[in-house]
Structure formats: C-alpha cells, structure tokens
Amino acid sequence: MAVARKFSDQLDAFCQMAARMADLHNAEAILFLTERPTEWDKLQAAVGDHALIVAADSEDVLAGSEDAQFDTVVLSVPDLPVYEQLTEALLEAVADEHLAPGAPVVAVYSGFESDTIDSLSLIRLGEHLGRLTIRDLKQLGAKVPTETLKSVVDLAVSIGREGREGKPVGTLMVVGDHRKTLTFCKPMGFDPVRGYPVSERMLSDGKVREGVKEIAQMDGAFVVSAKGTVVAACQHVSAPPAELSISKGLGARHWAAAEITRATSAVAVAVSESNGTVRVFLNGEVVLRIEPFRRAMKWKDFENEPPPATPAEKERDKDKDKEKDKEKEPEKAE
Ligand SMILES: Nc1ncnc2c1ncn2[C@@H]1O[C@H](COP(=O)(O)OP(=O)(O)OP(=O)(O)O)[C@@H](O)[C@H]1O
C-alpha cells in the first residue's frame, strides 16, 4: 500500500489558497490529484465547504477515504503526464456526474516536482472535452444495462485513444441480445475467448479489459452479453442488408454495426482505426459519436542519413565540381 503523506503546513496552505481561488471564480469543485494517501479529514477541513474531488492512479492511494464526504476518481490510464492526468480526472468526474461539463475547477497537484504538492491551477474544462455522461447513455433507451454500456464505451474510447504499442486500432463490439446476434456471426479464424469460463470473460475485470485491447488488434468483432460477459471475439458480423441512413463515407465495419443493430436489439460500438472516433449504433443509426481527445503518439527514428540525391541535384553537383576545377586552373598556371 502507498505510504501516506503527512498533511504538512505547505499542503494546508495550498488547500486554503485553492479554497480562496474557488470562492473568487465560483469554481464548482476543488480537484486534488495525488500520488499518495493523506490525512483525508484534514484535507476536507482545509478546503472548507467546497466540493472536493480526489483523483489518483490507483484504488490503493484512495484507501481510507471510503467514509469521507468527497468524491473520488481512479484514473483509467496510469502514468500519464500531469496535465493529461488532470484532464482525465476531470473527464471522469464529468462522466460520473460529479461535475458539469464546462465547470470551472481549481486543481491542487504536483506540477513541478513529483510527490510534492506545489501547484495550483484554475481549469475550465471546455465543452469540447466534455465526454459522454451516464445521462447520455440512459437517454439512448437501449435494452442494455447502463453499467455494461458504460464499460464497453469506456473501453472503446481508450482503444480509440491509445491504440496498441503506438499503432492505431479499430474494432467493433456488439452488446446485448447476444443469442440473436450470434446467429449473424461467423468466426474469422480462431475465437480467442472460446473455452474460457464466464468468470474469466467479465468486462468488469481489468485483466479481461486488457485482453480485449490485445484481441482488438485482430480482425472481427466482439459479442458482449447484456451482463458484460465477452461471449465471442474475432467474429464476422453479417446481418441482412437494410435501408440505412448512415454516412456513405463509412466502411464495412461501420455498416456491419448499423445492420446488426437493425436486425437485433443490440447496441454496437465501433472504433474507427483511421481516427479513433467511437460511434454508438442503435436500431441502424449512429446515436452517439465520441471524438478521441488524445491519440497515441507515434515516435519515428530521427533520420541521420541524408536522402539520396535527385537527378537534378546530381547535375548541379557536377556543375559545381567543374567550376571548382576552373578556379584551381589559374593557380596551376602560375
Ligand atoms: N462485417 C464485419 N464484421 C466484423 N468486422 C468487420 C466487418 N467488416 C469489416 N470488419 C473489420 O473492419 C476492418 C476495417 O474495414 P473497413 O476499413 O472496411 O471498415 P471501416 O468501417 O472503414 O473502419 P475503419 O474506420 O476502422 O477503417 C476490417 O479489417 C475488419 O477487421
């Protein structure tokens, strides 16, 4: 378990300043991003009546805060740079309805030196960053429990955003009405989840979610039950063609998503490999579209070798050599 941080005078001073700043700017909450647990009651007291959100990389860090009044957020992507951790924490807080999209927030965090609370920021989470809220999902009116839908959409968003090992990844997940969905599916080669007990295929399990990210690199779709069990993977989905009004620019994966949701009461969640956009389909239509706010960085080797010369450059070099030779000639004559 992470070693607790003493609630030092410096920490107390930062929290009090955050509270004053929150008063001044009508902030909706104070966000405390921490690498270690602390004396939670003192933290709560230091920010006064302001709503407090505590964010951390793992449940461990939040240990002992179960009875506290404040909301907590566990970041889904560990080891991000601090500014991205702040954004992620705010997005999660919006998704869990602890914060309204666009709300001003004062953040207290280690910005300069790790493990030292040394920074204070006033952040206004732009509407453009506001992600899907649970309310949006409920409004879809899908016959899939919101919890299952939320975990599939969260997973799809992180696949679209992170890709795998620096490469973009696209995939398709068909959720709910799985028995009927399976009648429209054919395995594309081996099904990697086949033969595993149900307890090892639950999306609520972090290891299963990691496994899904790995399998997502392969061709085909996942079929997920309404309860959140991965029923099949690497499936070719082919429902009868229907009159659909989705964009002609979308390819086979997205058409398959639209068609299966017309033929069944399932919800399909497609991640586009080309840009990481997540689209949620219901009854043959796109009902939600979520743009990735950050995609995996692609590092390229620095090119030390100059590129080979073009024919025109070679000609120019020859002319230069001739001129140099001419310049040298008079010297020879002397
Ligand atoms: N009917 C289908 N069922 C399951 N997977 C499919 C289906 N059709 C295509 N795919 C998967 O989608 C991949 C991309 O296909 P395509 O480029 O036509 O789709 P797309 O809709 O343009 O998606 P993207 O935006 O990711 O490129 C295929 O390589 C295949 O793995």
TrEMBL record:
Enzyme Commission numbers on file: 2.7.7.85
Residue ranges of domain DAC in the record: 131-292
Biased composition (Basic and acidic residues): 312-334
Disordered: region residues: 298-334
Reaction it catalyzes: 2 ATP = 3',3'-c-di-AMP + 2 diphosphate
EC class of the enzyme, as a word: transferase
GO molecular function: adenylate cyclase activity; ATP binding; diadenylate cyclase activity
Keyword annotations from UniProtKB, A to Z: ATP-binding, Nucleotide-binding, Nucleotidyltransferase, Transferase
Protein name as it appears in the record: DNA integrity scanning protein DisA
Record organism: Posidoniimonas polymericola
